[in-house]
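Service request form, structural biology core

Requester: graduate student, group of Dr. S.
Request type: structure prediction, single chain
Budget code: on file
Notes: please return the result as structure tokens.

Sequence provided:
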Amino acid sequence: MSRTIIGAIVGVAIAVLTAVCYVVVTGGLADRVKADAKLQMSIARIPAQAQNNARLDLLNTQAQAETMAKDEGVVGALRTTATLDRVREADLAFSRFHSNNAGQTQPDVLALVDAGGNIVAMDGVNNPVASELKDKDGKLVWRGLALTLESGHTRPAIAEIWNYPGRGLMRTGVAAVVDRQTADGVPKIIGAVVIAYSQSSKLAREEQAVLGSEIAYFQGDKVYASSFRKGDNTEDARMQQLIAPLLARDDLKQAFSSDSGIVSPVTATIDGQTYLVGAVRMPRYPNTKALPADYPPVTAGALVLAPAGRNVPEHATAGRMVIVLGAIALLLALGAMWLSSRRILDQVDELEVGVAEIINGNLERTFRPVGADLDGLANGLNVMLARLLGRPEPGEEEMDDDGNPIVPGRVEFEDEDGAAAPPADSSSAELAALAREPEPDYYKRVYTEYLEARRATGHPDEVSFEGFIAKLRVNEGKLKAQHQCKAVRFRVVTKDGKVTLKPVPIF
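Core staff response, request fulfilled:
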């Protein structure tokens, strides 16, 4: 049985079994099985993906704040006390920021704050409220900004999710602006850059498109935005109130006490719909280990919500059918591999053995028929060797009484075990002369000596010069690699009426 027939039988058997399982599983159940399987596989990794997305966004905000704080225009704007000069320098710095970040989402707040925490310039606002970041007692409401103004040049920029006064939940980054050209030569903090992006329903919808799951941003016990939409594609604010009670669940609160900041999805019912809900603690940069011990803990996070699929009894049947199909297909594949090994690989192994023998110097080796699949290759190898070595091609050789082909031009080589060192009867001068002899002269001399020695012993041979040289070169290459020597040459040796070629390694 040929490979084609074996492959066809296996293919038809797998196709029939697959068709039977397809008929059983389909008929309305397939779509639900696919949806539920996809949901179960993906919901477990959605919280981690949401946290990674938030981490990347915060790192980008942190880098933007640090870069902006080093802008010469920002330093100039905070250094000067002239209003017109400050406005001009700040506007130029804001323009450079937008140009450098073209193609990216632009921040909702881009502001410069002086050393006292007062806003002195804000992108897109002609007369910003100086005390926007302070409470009624004149203290900064954001600890991160206060810490930056105190020791900003000794620590990296701070980026975190923060409840910006009057603007809601925002991804905010702050970096100190340091004047290094002071009169006393001591760097001085003269203000800070504040960059903030709103954690809005628009951002939530963008995240929902990436995650494939609804998302809601919260801080403490309040939901500020979600990706849920109404029929007119506007945010469904009602869902914020319905989601808020979930924030009191202890199993979701664990996101703020666990090392990973992630809670695996749990089941919850919202407005009559069952959801798988995962909680994520929003990251902060630098992490809490680089901040004072009394720095406020992270209270901002995100919920990811996916509708839970229905568990139907047919799911178990479908799973069993798929397992059965896989087991049968595996058995068929193993059987096909076994048959291929018996019929093809054994033939290949036999050819490989013959090739290995030829590589090791047995140039009289011929390839016998190995099987219907590879007989053509074996015959082709015999033709190739015949033409390379100048001997009769298959079908043209003479046969002995036992029916074996007579191989003319056989060259006998002495056992290579003695080739590890020069012959004992060789002098250094002889070896040196042998090593210096030009290769063409060497081959002609050895060929002539070999033929003469064979005739002298009454065994004339018909080996051609090309075949003789080919055999010498094959053995030279093998012995040269074996003994790690510079070259290998051969001497004609006659002993007990037998003519052989003795290898002489030259180191």
